[in-house]
Amino acid sequence: MSDERLYSVSIEVNGTLREAQVPARLTLVDFLRDTLRLTGTHAGCEHGICGACSVLLDGEPVRSCIMYAVQADGRKLTTIEGLAQPDGSPGALQDAFCEAHATQCGYCTPGMVIAAHALLEANPAPAEQEIREAIGGNLCRCTGYQQIVDAIKLAADRGSKGGL
Amino acid sequence: MSATGQSGFRYIGKKRRTKEDPRFVTGRGRFVADIALPGMKHVALVTSPHAAARIKAIRTDKALALSGVQYVLTGAELCAGTEALLPGVDAPKVTRYPLAHGVVRYAGEWVAAVVADTRALAEDAAEKIEIDYEATEYVLDPEKSIAPGAPLVHPAHGSNVLYRRKFVWGPVEEDFARAEHKLALRVRWGRSATVPIETFGIAAQWDPGQQLLDVWASIQMPKYPDQIARALRLPGNAVRVHFDVDVGGSYGVKRGIKHTVLVGYLAKKLGMPVRLIEDRLENMRGGDMHGPDRIFDLQLAFDSDGTIRSLKIRALDDVGAYAGRSPLQLGKPVGAIVGPYQIHSVEYEPISVMTNKTAQEAVRGFGQSPTNYALESGIDAVARHLGMDRIALRKKNFIRKDQFPYLIPSGTSYDSGDYHAVLDKALAAADYPALVAARDAARKAGRLAGIGISSCLEPSGGNSSFEPLFNPKNETTTWMDSCLVRIDLSGAITGVMNTSSSGQGHETLVATVLGEVLERDPDTIRVVHADSLNALPSNSPVGSRMAIMLGGAAAGAARKIKATLLAIAAHNLHKDVAELEYHEGSVSVKGEPGQTLSWAQLVEIAHRKFHQMPPGLEPGLQAKFVWEVPTGGGLPTADGRIQMYPCFSFEAHVVLVEIDPETGQPKLARYACGHDCGVMISPDIVHGMTFGGIAHGIGAALYEKFAYSDNGQLESQSFMDYLIPSALEVPALTIADHCTPSPHTTFGQKGSGEAGYLGAPAAIACAVNDALAPLGASIAELPMTPLQIWTRMQLARAGN
Questions:
Q1: Which of B85, B526, B536, B692 is the most buried (most CB within 10 A)?
Q2: To the nearest whole angstrom, how far is the Cα of B332 from the nearest Cα of chain A?
Q3: What is the pLDDT of residue B800?
């Protein structure tokens, strides 16, 4: 293996404190996926455009592909797994995505749900244009966004914010 | 929603949740990059900086000296150890290996592969590999590529032309001579692709004890296991592809055969699990997944009343430096070469040509969307020439609903449709009079606005008729799909499908169909993906085929199960089957509801009570169904007529575009699509794919292009340059459903996996040109980028 210098990180992920020794260049997405085995966060472009790797950092959506794990030291992260019910079944926002069939291949979906969650936390009754702007940094190749917009409207109508 | 044909079902056509969504929304999908094999090593690639060059030397010692580096593979070893990958047409000298050997043929081509303990270390090592190149002549323009004296991409082939033939179907010259008007036009479809958000990935592991290569891949490819085995010189049963991997989007391109041969070779050679997950740069440059790049020259012959008599199309397609099935993307459109129109005769000259660019792969619609764009551009040109309304011209030439089955000049019989009704529904959904008023008001206010119309077909059912049509040495006419159904001892139903899925909701499809036939709740039915060693034959979800083929196979298997249950009941109730009725899994004597055997009792007999089984029935409760594409199985005639796909879905698009007069940025102000894919098994899934297809079409029409510099460098190799439409570019979309059942399928369903994409580019191009028309400007090339629109506006204004 490599002889890269390692750094200690201590990050609260989905409510649990996770500590690890990581190389400085380890991206946050690789830390989540490879170190913690939280594989719901997906790498799509690895240059911060597509949004598939979105996670909540202290409640704000960020791209985990253009952030290093060491930069998240001492912070709180929520990933797509953290928006589910404790038994792993869909949380309220995730359930709205199921009801509206807002997924196809499922690859961009975690990032979309994260973006939608952040929107609804800040704005529980968004207009359609606000929804489109909130997910405007998340690319989807399957859905044409229509059913995603519908799902977020549905979640807002149900007064749900993600089930955390 | 039309009730015609769509009613009378228990589960089909109903709003129901899909089986796949819960795992995706919770981040519990299982994609190839999620698969972690113990001791797995990682591949990074060294790629060519030249469009064409001789490789003089490769020095790997500095890379190999790095800690954690396992191996460096180059083309010399790989080419000696594997069989070449060949094109779908008869061009045996146009060979492809996963790594270049001796020469490179495009910038980004893979030259060496580094295997290391982590991907980061592999990338470090890749940077230490030194390669000496001697740049050579290259060709980028397809017109120059077919001209005499052009540099040859594959000198051994003797030409850059992979395939060329002039088909003549019907009395083309006579029809042209008789027509009152003729016109010619040239349009160009730009190089774009489906570009899934998940790149291609593969993990492989060789078990020397079993002599077995296990493969997990992000894959959508017919005959993938067979091709891997052949290239790796293994028997077919030494490769096991695990089809239970969720594929993060494909829409045609996830073929990955060269990736798999590379990684499979390394896994076997090193005796370690190896994986390659393309990064975005590797994907865009060297993933060999670019789409069609076509120049169309059209001639149309027509009369003053708008009757289109005949059509000539020359299609020059730039497939890049290597080819798999890409030349065949000129073949599929043969099956819908006249679109939805009554055109009496056709001349079609497809030319597939190589250049020093990234290779082309299958893209949603397999060449149909570019052809639809060309044809619709021709229809619009005729309307302009005659001063005739675009809608009236289309309606005049549409095949009427009473004319089906309708045989087109190239030998395909269209199954069914009602094009007039669907176009009317699209116009109504768009509120066409209001659209016209909005456009005209915008124009009066000095803005640019235009309306686009397109109407086109989605051939569906996916057979391989273009293979023997374009390659006489290939007599493939079988293109089956299959399903296995098992009822276990508990009475639970499991459907087994035989390919991977990339977002099409096949588990929902199979469960819905099994539930429909067996009258059992689809939510209780599990659907699993076999691996390739225990799979029945499948040709994968290509050609908008799975609703038809997998749906049909599932229904066929379920009907066998039902017949078995009826036979068991007849034996035990001492009645003829004709005297019995099946209801939700139990079987009763007609008119005597007390005489009933329940689902549980019937299952019990099948599994445990051989003494109660009718003679000749096999114990247990399972059935398989394998079937050939309906109407398939034929070879082409000498003049190239063939029944291509069995079913023909129809779509009509109506769009209002407004163009920012300062920036050229187009905005889609209203978008409606009328859509008829027969009976929809899962309306949410059909609508989702259609929405997605329209969004993809918006990208192809306005934003997406694999652009090359004059020295052959790919300029749009990240998502900062290759622009995929976001939720801000894609407007709210309205779909108006119509249902004309297909006579060829189990429930009347047709295909819909390519819906939206097949007509959206044509409609948007039409709208942009309508918007530019008052300036006297037009654009005949996709994508019509904001810069291109702005430039035409400036030129037109300067001219004024």
A1: B692
A2: 23
A3: 60
